[in-house]
Design goal:
heterodimer; A: alpha/beta; Rossmann fold; 8-stranded mixed beta sheet; 11 helices; 16% strand; globular; B: alpha/beta; Aspartate Aminotransferase, domain 2; Aspartate Aminotransferase, domain 1; 2 domains; 5-stranded mixed beta sheet; 12 strands; 13% strand
Chain lengths: 272, 442
Amino acid sequence: MKFEVNGNEVFASTGGRPFDKNKPLIIFVHGSGLTHMTWVLQTRYFAFHGYSVLAVDMPGHGLSSGKSLKSIEDMADWINDVIDAVGYKEASLVGHSQGCLVTVECTSRYPDKIKTLSLMGGAGAIPMNPELLELAENNDPKAVDLMMDWAHGPAGHFGGHPVPGLYHINTGGMLAKSRTIKETLGVDFRACDNYKNGFEAAKKIKIPTLSILATDDKMCPVKEGKKLADLIDGSKVDIIDNCGHMMLLEEADRVLKVLKKFITTNYPPLNT
Amino acid sequence: MSDKKIPNPKTYKFDTLSLHAGYQPHKNAGSRQVPIYQTTSYLFDDVDHAAALFNLERGGHIYSRISNPTVGVLEERVASLEGGTAALATSSGMSAIFLTVMTLCEAGDHLVVSSQLYGGTVNLFRLTLPKFGIKCTFVKPRDTEGFKKAIQKNTKGIFGELVGNPGNEIMNMPEIAKIAHDAGIPLMIDATYQTPYLCKPFEHGADIVVHSLTKWMAGHGSSMAGILVEGGNFDWMQNDKFPTMTKPYEGYHGLSFAEEFGPTAFTMKARAEGMRDFGPCLSPQNAWNVLQGIETLSVRMKKHCSNADEMVKYLSNHESVAWVSHPNVPDHPDHELAKKLLPNGRGSMIAFGIKGGKDAGVAFINNVKLASHLANVGDTRTLVIHPASGTHSQMDEATLKFAGLSHDMIRLSVGIEDIDDIKNDFEIGFRAARKPRLVSNQ
């Protein structure tokens, strides 16, 4: 669905079901340079099971208008604006990679609004390889190719997508190339590199939090994810083996199973 | 740019993908070879799982008409080799084309189509699709500007074979892709003759690629199969031409395929709607057979091309041959374009005219021993046919002429036998062709 935030049109997938304000809201926040489509194997489940779902395209990404936001802090405030714009007082957040930085910061800034936090492939900081950052800021498609290479684990490189017929390395690459690389990936990478407040923000979080990490994640390794999780009171950690950073596609079913249990327990659906 | 400091991506390359893409042994009892899932249907964990699969909430298999794990490996493998986002395998190349058109079009729509196509494809576009209310305008493949002129308000796409069958005329794919994209419509390319080893049409602007996998991809001539592959780059939401892709679809709780699946939307719709409603599914056994062929695709294509190059030289200098059409012939009108679009080889399809016309052609076909006379191409074995009396025999004289066919034309699909044996066999055919009556009386 489309709605307006700060004068710009925003697109968010509602998981294939009508947006219903009577249901608890879950907002899914994508990673650097990507779009709402990375969440398709999680969002549709929740949308069909008693939740209102918004898998947002961040400004300047996917089908959303405007320019990409330049800092994680701005993105965190923007998520808060989204909650207001759709007329909710609270929401549950799910983030992937850069989306983890955004949702951690958002949760620390708006503690009364955010009810649960789910982090996939997250870390307290995501410093960028300088050469990769330079490639992205120079609009070089090699930046996307490298990201897809590093973001998939050894098993993921062979394919084996849960949806028959889909080849996820090429699909992810196409998503990241769907808008101008320097204006999406380049800006996002710089925002990640500049962000230093992740660990401090994590210390302020007092809500149920889940970190899903993957053994073959080269971009946000397990030890970095644990370092972040250790700072959040009562945080749960689930580690998926034989899987890389793109766990939400590489091991969509295993991720959904863990996420489903966590969210339905801590933020129950409207019984339908 | 500091390319020296950062390595190139280590994603697997063509020959490796040919052997491994789409399959993880550890998820299949450690079986090194892809298992043949000879089953119609799949157990649901519970009713919630069943509903999730039907609602496209989760990936997985329901019924082998829609998807099958063995077929899925083939689909991912071909998608990876083409550089596509997704693929859908079908029971034949023709069903892949039909499913592509029916996913794209509705009654009242129009397509612009290259005139030089396999005879069965011509009949689909000329005679069968109009029965569904889908009309086509045919344009000669070299008439790039003609494709532009033929586009109407209700045109939903351009379709063609990159190298036309059987005349070897080449579409200027990059320019025709630009024409299509300027009009907000996709370019669909049948790349059966090339396989992704010789050309990846997505790199030249195509949006959908179809193959008859029966041909070079499988190579062994044992199994019928087809596939459609999606490039993932076409923006279905850029205009209002594709409401079945962009508007809520009643058949899946108001799902918008383009919004929900983006770069894989076309394949998702083709499977969810097309396989559900038309059902041209590929058998897991045939999918497995094709996978065996794809494992050696690059090795075979190199030999096909080198043998074809030898045969072009041999035929070009033969006293019984009036003309030779192959993109490697220097005076072929598309020679330069072929070098650009087909850098790894120009394929193994040769058309040539035999001196003595139709009677000589018949004598040649009836007398070769090693070359097989049959209605297929892309076998590892050398194949020959006389199109005017075979593959294109259902066409009238005017249509034959428009398709670039002549009565003296022999279509040759060069195999990977020893080149000397192929030439020796052709000598027998040519000798008979020079004395058609004498031979036919023996």
